[in-house]
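Input (structure):
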C-alpha cells in the first residue's frame, strides 16, 4: 500500500517536472536577470543560488534586478542569506534594498524589505512562487548579497481518501492579438476559483511586436465601492512590478487607459464578501503614427489594424473606425431582424391570411337577397278592401313636397294583387327604411333617393298618414303585377285613412 502511494506521488511530481525546461540560467517561471547585468544565478532541481551584481565585490549604482523563483507543485521556497552580507542602510530601507514578495508578481503580498548589515536569516514562502527585487541608487554602494534557495515540502500537502490530490489554485489567463475582451466572468466559467472563496486573478495581455495597448472598460461594477481592500481592478504597464502600476480602480468609475508597452497586466481582487464585483474590458493593440498601409488612422495619435475597421466594435478612442459603415450596419441590422423576428412575423402573417380566407368563405356561403320586386324597393305588400276611394294625396302636398312623388311616376310593378287590393304607400309601412329602386346604382342617384325618402318621412310625421295596424294583412307571396299608376293608389290610400 505504501509503495502505491509513493509511486502515485512520484508520477505526480514527474508530470509537474516535465513542464519545466532543463536546468540552465534560462527562466522557468518568468523573468531572469542575465549573469553580467544582475549577477550569477545557478539553478538545479532542488533549488539554486543567485547573488547581487559583482558579488563579492561592491555592487554598481543605479541597478534594478528581479528574480522570480518557482518550485514544483506542493513545495515551498526557502531563502538563506550568506554571512557576507551588506546593503546600504537607510530608514525603512528607502534607498538600496532587497524586497521579497510571497508570490510570482510585483503586487504579491510583501514578506519584507531588507537593508543594512544584519543578516535576514531564513525566509520562507507560503506557496510555490517567490518574487525578489534588488534596487540600488546612485550613491553609497555596498558588498551586496548571496542567497541560496531550496525547495521544501509544503506542510499543508496531504492526500485525500482515494489518492486524489488537493487542487492547485490557478487563476491566470493570457490573451493577445490586435484586440480582445477581458472579462471577470471567465473565472466562474472555467471554475478557476471555488464559489465563496476570495478571487485574485491575473490577465496578461501581449500585443504584436512594436505595438502598444489601449484599454477601455465596457462594464465595471464593484460590489463595495471605494473600499479597495475588499475589491479592485488594477492595471500594470509592462510587468506586474508594483512600480509599473498604471491605475487602480475601486470606486464607481473606471477610465480608459493607454499603455506605453506591448505587455499589460490586469489584476482583479475580490474578497469572500465581494464576489459580485465584475468587469469587462476591451483591449486594442495600436502603433504610433505615421500609419502604415495595413493600418487605420484613428485621429487620436494611434493607428489600428485594418481588420478592426467596421467590425461593430469601437476600437479607436473616438468612433472613427465605425462612422462610415452605414451599409454594413444596415445589412447587419436586417440580418439580425430577419433572424430574430422572422418566425414571429411569419406566424402573424399566416394567422391574418387564414382569418381573411375564412371571412371570404363565410360571405360567399351566406344567402343573398333576391333583387327586384317590392322587397327591393322596401315596400310592404298589403291590401285595402275594395270600394275605398282615397282623396288625392298630391293636393295635401306643397309644390316642394310634391317632388316626393316624382320617382313613382315611372313605377311599374312586377306582380299581381288580389282582387280588390292595392299596394300600400311606402311611407305608411316602412317609414324608417331607405328607399331603394332597381337601377339606382350610381352614387348620385342614391343620394337623391335618400333625400326624397327623408321628405316622405317628414310628411308622414307631420300629417299622420301611417296606416292603422288593423288594416294590415300578411304580405302576398304571389307574383305581383302592377298596372295601376301610383297616383290612383295614393288616392285610394287617402280614402282608406279618411274612413278609418
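Output (sequence):
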Amino acid at each position: 500500500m505504501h509503495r502505491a502511494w509513493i509511486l502515485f506521488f512520484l508520477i505526480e511530481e514527474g508530470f509537474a517536472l516535465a513542464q519545466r525546461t532543463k536546468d540552465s540560467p534560462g527562466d522557468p517561471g518568468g523573468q531572469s536577470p542575465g549573469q553580467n547585468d544582475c549577477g550569477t544565478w545557478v539553478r538545479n532541481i532542488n533549488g539554486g543560488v543567485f547573488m547581487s551584481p559583482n558579488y563579492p565585490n561592491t555592487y554598481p549604482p543605479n541597478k534594478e534586478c528581479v528574480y522570480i523563483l518557482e518550485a514544483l507543485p506542493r513545495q515551498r521556497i526557502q531563502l538563506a542569506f550568506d554571512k557576507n552580507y551588506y546593503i546600504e542602510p537607510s530608514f525603512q530601507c528607502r534607498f538600496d534594498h532587497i524586497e521579497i514578495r510571497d508570490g510570482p508578481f510585483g503586487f504579491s503580498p510583501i514578506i519584507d524589505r531588507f537593508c543594512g548589515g544584519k543578516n535576514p536569516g531564513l525566509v520562507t514562502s507560503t506557496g510555490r512562487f517567490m518574487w525578489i527585487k534588488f534596487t540600488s541608487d546612485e550613491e553609497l554602494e555596498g558588498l551586496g548579497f548571496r542567497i541560496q534557495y531550496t525547495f521544501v515540502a509544503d506542510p499543508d500537502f496531504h492526500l485525500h481518501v482515494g489518492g486524489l490530490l488537493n487542487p492547485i489554485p490557478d487563476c491566470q489567463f493570457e490573451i493577445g492579438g490586435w484586440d480582445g475582451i477581458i472579462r471577470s466572468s471567465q473565472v466562474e466559467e472555467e471554475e478557476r476559483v471555488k464559489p465563496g472563496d476570495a478571487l485574485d486573478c491575473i490577465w496578461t495581455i501581449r500585443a504584436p511586436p512594436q505595438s502598444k495597448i489601449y484599454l477601455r472598460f465596457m462594464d465595471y461594477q464593484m460590489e463595495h465601492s471605494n473600499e479597495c481592500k475588499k475589491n479592485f481592478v488594477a492595471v500594470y504597464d509592462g510587468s506586474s512590478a508594483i512600480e509599473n502600476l498604471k491605475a487602480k480602480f475601486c470606486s464607481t468609475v473606471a477610465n480608459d487607459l493607454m499603455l506605453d508597452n506591448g505587455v499589460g497586466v490586469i489584476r482583479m481582487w475580490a474578497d469572500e464578501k465581494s464576489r459580485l464585483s465584475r468587469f469587462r474590458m476591451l483591449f486594442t493593440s495600436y502603433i504610433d503614427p505615421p500609419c502604415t498601409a495595413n493600418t487605420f488612422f484613428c485621429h487620436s495619435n494611434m493607428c489600428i489594424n485594418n481588420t478592426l475597421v467596421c467590425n461593430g466594435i469601437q476600437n479607436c478612442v473616438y468612433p472613427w473606425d465605425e462612422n462610415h459603415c452605414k451599409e454594413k450596419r444596415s445589412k447587419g441590422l436586417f440580418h439580425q431582424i430577419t433572424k430574430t423576428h422572422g418566425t414571429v412575423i411569419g406566424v402573424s402573417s399566416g394567422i391574418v391570411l387564414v382569418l381573411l380566407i375564412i371571412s371570404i368563405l363565410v360571405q360567399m356561403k351566406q344567402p343573398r337577397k333576391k333583387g327586384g320586386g317590392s322587397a327591393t324597393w322596401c315596400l310592404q305588400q298589403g291590401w285595402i278592401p275594395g270600394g275605398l276611394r282615397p282623396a288625392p294625396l298630391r293636393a295635401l302636398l306643397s309644390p316642394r313636397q310634391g317632388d316626393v312623388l316624382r320617382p313613382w311616376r315611372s313605377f311599374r310593378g312586377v306582380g299581381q294583387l288580389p282582387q280588390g287590393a292595392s299596394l300600400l304607400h311606402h311611407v305608411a309601412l316602412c317609414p324608417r327604411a331607405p328607399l331603394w329602386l332597381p337601377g339606382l346604382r350610381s352614387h348620385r342617384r342614391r343620394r337623391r333617393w335618400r333625400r326624397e325618402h327623408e321628405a316622405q318621412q317628414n310628411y308622414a310625421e307631420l300629417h299622420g298618414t301611417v296606416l292603422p295596424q288593423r288594416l294590415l294583412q300578411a304580405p302576398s307571396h304571389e307574383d305581383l303585377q302592377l298596372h295601376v299608376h301610383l297616383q290612383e293608389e295614393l288616392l285610394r290610400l287617402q280614402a282608406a285613412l279618411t274612413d278609418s
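Notes: The chain has a mean pLDDT of 72. The longest strand covers residues 212-221.
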